């Protein structure tokens, strides 16, 4: 992994999300959009606290290929298959128990096998119940807007 962290403030992730909500056309899928924003902020924060804790540099994400999500009340569980600049695919999964994505939230990043379009997950995994969704154009829009923001200078 590129050991540099993106040095984004958690607020930058939320600001882009809020901007998209403000500019949204009817039908914007906030479930996956907010899940992605909070997941990327969590990964960035954990990589900054412990470099290399996740094999993912947020700046290296090219696109989200597919996603699943379950949002009930204030609880989130979901995952994203992402394509990276170097051609690899990774599966990012996250959980949050509460709207603030606090210290009990967690994320994991695993490689997707080269010959597969989905990660290898247990048979009774949450994604089987929720189902996978593809072609979420708002996730690509979110990544483009996030990439256009300058990084913080240390």
Rg estimate, integer Å: 15 Å
Q: What is the beta-strand fraction? A: 25-35%
Q: How many DSSP H or I helices?
A: 4
Could you say which overall geometry the principal axes of the C-alpha atoms support?
globular
- Which structural class fits the helix and strand makeup? alpha+beta
Report, as a whole number of angstroms, the end-to-end distance.
21 Å
Give a short account of the largest sheet: 5 strands, antiparallel
> Percentage of helical residues?
25-40%
> What are the secondary-structure elements, in order, as H or E?
HHEEEEHEH
Q: How is the largest sheet built, in terms of strand order? A: 4-3-2-1-5
Average pLDDT confidence is: 85
Contiguous low-pLDDT stretches (5 residues minimum) are: 1-5
How many individual β-strands?
5
How are the SSEs ordered, and which strands pair?
Blueprint: H1 10-23, H2 30-49, E1 61-72, E2 75-84, E3 89-97, E4 106-111, H3 126-130, E5 133-134, H4 137-147
Antiparallel strand pairs: 1-2, 1-5, 2-3, 3-4
Task: Write up this protein.
This protein is an alpha+beta fold. It has four helices and five strands. It has a five-stranded antiparallel beta sheet. A hairpin with a 2-residue loop joins strand 1 and strand 2 (75-84). Helix 1 runs antiparallel to helix 2 (30-49). The radius of gyration is 15 Å and the shape is globular.
Report a brief summary of the structure.
With 154 residues, the protein is of the alpha+beta class. The chain contains 4 helices and 5 strands, in the order H-H-E-E-E-E-H-E-H. The two termini are 21 Å apart.
């Amino acid at each position: 992994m590129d050991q540099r962290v993106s040095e984004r403030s958690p607020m930058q992730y939320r600001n882009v999300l809020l901007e998209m909500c403000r500019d949204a056309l009817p039908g914007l899928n906030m479930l996956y959009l907010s899940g992605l924003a909070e997941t990327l902020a969590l990964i960035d924060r954990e990589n900054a606290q412990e470099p290399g804790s996740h094999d993912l540099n947020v700046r290296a994400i090219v696109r989200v290929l597919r996603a699943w999500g379950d949002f009930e009340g204030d609880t989130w569980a979901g995952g994203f298959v992402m394509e990276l600049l170097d051609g690899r695919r990774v599966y990012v999964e996250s959980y949050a128990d509460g709207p603030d994505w606090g210290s009990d939230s967690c994320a994991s990043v695993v490689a997707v096998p080269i010959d597969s379009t989905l990660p290898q997950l247990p048979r009774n995994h949450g994604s089987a119940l929720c189902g996978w969704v593809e072609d979420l154009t708002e996730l690509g829009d979110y990544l483009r807007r996030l990439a256009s923001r300058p990084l913080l200078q240390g």
